[in-house]
Design goal:
Largest sheet: 7 strands, mixed
Shape: globular
Distance between the termini: 32 Å
Strand order of the largest sheet: 2-10-9-8-5-3-4
Strand content: 5-15%
Number of helices: 10
Bound molecules: pyridoxal-5'-phosphate
Length: 368
């Protein structure tokens, strides 16, 4: 019996994808062997990775001057790898901090800066933020000469999402976005970014894979001599992400997810369902008379990750226990913010949100 899984990641995968992967486990397309057991240099796997790349490019409407890399180390590795590759000697990288993950990215870059001889700084917004809204930035806050400006377009822990209309104007400084928890959940104009990255385990596939989308001019510049090949975007691109053994099974499952997304109608169709899912849950929270509360400003509320508090936090263990009995799991909030959280990624069916909302309404009625 499958339950409704609201995990923030590793997260729910489409059931059709899991069924297909299970079917292929012992014998992929008559080869007599499973994908996990295949050489990454063989023709069968080459087809798998090429197809995954082509389908992802298709879903994103990727312009031809961008490349897709399949890397490892999670989104966290990118926090360090990005400045290693792109923060120049005497250069500057600016960080927009809208929540826990962008703060971590800044901290990691700060550790790398002395290696490259560059500098990192947080961009000053209009106010001290408790991460319940998107800060406002004047254009002057950004240095047009900066090597890059980093931001996280969906803060998984604080439930703050930045849509394209809210992207700051960084003038000529290239933008880099951590999109781990909302990539493919809505149409996005990749041209706004020099680079986008995402750990796969939220909206793409199994953990162990990191997807990188990078403008090709960034791959032409040679990184510092001391940078290990494995960490070099340029070397990885030249080797088609196969400098060493890539996470083959994770890439294969991600490829199945891309095909599933295309069959659903692509990201525009996903967005319509995601808007509906998020609206159902936020309405339930907002109309609970204060029993539940989400303090994020309405234009900054994430469609993917919905953190919420109970007026009486002592009820949380009971809420979680009853939810589990109702087949609703992984609703505990991140330990740094407490409370509860429901993640509503692409693969979570709207039915799951309907059941959750019914459960929450009933729980509020009986405990208020
Ligand atoms: C989960 C997450 C990360 C960390 O991902 P790992 O793959 O565990 O390194 C980074 N950024 C965001 C926005 C995330 O949601």
């Amino acid at each position: 019996m499958r339950v409704f899984n609201f995990s923030s990641g590793p997260a729910v995968l489409p059931e059709a994808v899991l069924t297909q992967a299970a079917e292929d486990m012992l014998d992929w397309q008559g080869t007599g062997t499973g994908v996990m057991e295949m050489s990454h240099r063989g023709s069968a796997f080459s087809r798998i990775i090429e197809m995954a790349r082509a389908d992802l490019a298709d879903l994103l409407g990727l312009p031809s001057d961008y490349a897709i890399l399949f890397l490892q180390g999670g989104a966290t590795q990118q926090f360090s790898q990005l400045p290693m590759n792109r923060l120049k000697k005497r250069g500057l990288a600016q960080y927009v901090v809208t929540g826990a993950w962008s703060a971590k990215a800044l901290e990691a870059a700060g550790k790398v800066a002395p290696l490259t001889g560059g500098r990192v700084e947080a961009v000053a917004g209009d106010e001290e933020s408790d991460f319940s809204d998107l800060p406002f930035f004047t254009d002057e806050a950004f240095d047009p000469e900066a090597d890059y400006v980093h931001l996280c377009t969906n803060e998984t822990i604080h439930g703050v999402e930045m849509d394209e209309a809210h992207l700051p104007n960084t003038q000529d400084a290239p933008l880099v976005a951590d999109m781990s928890s909302h990539i493919l959940s809505r149409p996005m104009d990749i041209r706004r970014y020099a680079m986008v990255y995402a750990g796969a385990q939220k909206n793409i596939g199994p953990s162990g894979l990191t997807v990188l989308i990078v403008r090709k001019d960034w791959l032409e510049e040679t990184p510092p001599d001391w940078l290990p090949d494995l960490l070099s975007y340029q070397v990885q691109a030249r080797h088609d992400s196969m400098l060493n053994t890539p996470p083959t099974f994770a890439i294969y499952v991600a490829g199945l997810v891309f095909q599933w997304l295309k069959a659903q109608g692509g990201v525009a169709a996903m967005e319509r369902v995601n808007i509906e899912k998020a609206a159902l849950l936020y309405a339930c929270i907002d109309q609970s008379g204060g029993f539940y509360r989400n303090g994020v400003a309405s234009e900054a509320r994430s469609r993917m990750n919905v953190p919420f508090l109970l007026a009486d936090p002592a009820l949380i263990p009971l809420f979680l226990e009853h939810a589990r009995s109702a087949g609703l799991i992984e609703l505990k909030g991140h330990k740094s913010v407490g409370g509860l959280r429901a993640s509503l990624y692409n693969a979570l069916p709207i039915e799951a949100v309907r059941v959750l909302v019914d459960f929450m309404t009933h729980f509020a009625k009986t405990r208020a």
